[in-house]
Amino acid sequence: MSSTANNSTWTGMVPVDDTALAVTDTGGPGVPVIYCNGQFATQGYWRRVLADLGPGFRHITYDERARGKKSKRSADYSFEACVRDVDAVLAARGVDRALVVGWSYGAFVGAHWASRNPERAVGAVLVDGAQPYDWLDEAMEARIRKLFKRLSWITPLLRPTGLTPRLSAAQQAECNIELGKISREANLAPVLDNITVPTRYVLASGASFGSHGDEQEKIRASLVAVCARNPHLEVSAKVASNHDHILRKDFRAVADAVREVADLDRADR
């Protein structure tokens, strides 16, 4: 699966387009797993999943453009740039085939990458994201802009810690609005229908930061029709924690889904 499956952990910067991404690669001969972060999250969010899976897998994590402490700024923060970055990281680490895991925004990135690269994708684990639903309208767009404008005073203070991205409030809002367009059923459903590798969803429960009422549960319910159409897609688990806490409180369910997908790939080969 990899031409450079060394046994030592590598950390460094991977150049891509006009920027560079901070990457960590544990190395080793196991199945390579690349982790796609939440929209403004960092690779540290995956630490419990990595610990549960252990050294039997080759773990590749990275911080997206202007995220974390080290990844550089860019002129392009689009969704397509994020999908390209998966290829750039894998190429830099000499990995031909990988299992892609994504949480939230990263689940959309992972779904698109798996859909476009059936020969290179071992499979996918999508954590509470990549659900086709038309949740973006004019009122929601205004709500998003208002939310990030309200947070604009505190995010610069937290940037040195890596907890918030080095994007302006307007740039963060635009990223979120673009995701709403990508999420629309007309746009996302064909992507999911086109996936031909084992794909497992791990779903959270209840609401999360920025959502109201049962909005999130309505979005998750869209997967019933998706999984009915495509036998490669299944819900592996629906856990008790919410969207924001799933990688911290229910990391074992995510790790179990990774093992399941890896085992399915081995059985097919």
Ordered list of secondary-structure elements with their pairings:
Layout: E1 10-16, E2 19-25, E3 31-36, H1 47-53, E4 57-62, H2 79-92, E5 98-103, H3 105-116, E6 121-127, H4 138-151, H5 155-158, H6 169-183, H7 185-193, E7 199-203, H8 215-221, H9 223-229, E8 233-238, H10 246-249, H11 251-268
Parallel strand pairs: 3-4, 3-5, 5-6, 6-7, 7-8
Antiparallel strand pairs: 1-2, 2-4
What is the 3D shape?
A: globular
The portion of residues assigned to helices is 40-55%
Computed Rg: 17 Å
Trace the largest sheet across and list its strands. 1-2-4-3-5-6-7-8
Summarize the structure in short:
This protein is α/β, with parallel strands linked by helices.
Salient structural properties:
about 270 residues; globular; alpha/beta; eight-stranded mixed sheet
Model description:
The protein is an alpha/beta fold and 269 residues long. Helices cover 41% and strands 19% of the residues. An eight-stranded mixed sheet has the order 1-2-4-3-5-6-7-8, sandwiched between helices. Strand 3, helix 1 (47-53) and strand 4 (57-62) form a beta-alpha-beta unit. The longest helix has 18 residues, at 251-268. The radius of gyration is 17 Å and the shape is globular. The protein starts with 9 loop residues before the first strand and ends with a helix.
